[in-house]
Amino acid sequence: MSETLVEQAGPKAHPAAAPFVSCVLAWLVPGLGHMYLGKRNRAVVFFAVVVGMFGLGVVSDGAASLFEARQPLSFLSTFDNLATGPIDLISRHHTYGSIVFTLPPDEGDPRRIELLGRLRARVRGVTYEYGNIYLLTAGLMNILLMLDCFDIATGRKS
Questions:
Q1: For 138, what's the count of Cα atoms within 13 Å in the CB-facing half-sphere?
Q2: Burial 16-44 (b: 16+ CB within 10 A, else e)
């Protein structure tokens, strides 16, 4: 009978785990939020999945997205890339030669021309589209992992 009562009560909040802290840790390093919550096996698997997808994206000539005011949906893909945390800086530097998040608005801006030239060079790669999808998938997966950390820390999930 006591087992039935425990099952009905549902999972309890992880003791001394702050939901915000676990989410920030999960953003900083994929899997670190789960490690903080004591879910070591999950942490290792999630780290391997997100970093593996990210790595496949980079070696497949995927390009980090840039926000451009004339294309409002570019905000979503840029946000998704940022969801991988600081490792996103690697793909940005690999794609554009520097850490940049927005495309300069002025058509004649030499920096804009340089960034578009680097992006066009990647588009010529055979695996470019696959690389982009891997990068976006890594970001979406890490968003789900941050939400999972929040649910575990608040007791919604065990």
A1: 33
A2: ebebeebbbbbbebbbbbbbbbebeebbe
**Distance between alpha carbon 78 and the CA centroid of its chain, in Å?**
10
d(CA 97, CA 100): 9
Q: For the whole model, what pTM was predicted?
A: 0.85
Consecutive sets of 10 residues in the chain, 158 residues long: mean pLDDT of each?
A: 46 69 97 96 97 96 91 93 96 92 91 91 87 96 97 91
Instruction: Report whether 33 contacts 144 (CB < 8 A).
Output: no
Residue 105 identity: P
CA 31 to chain centre: 11
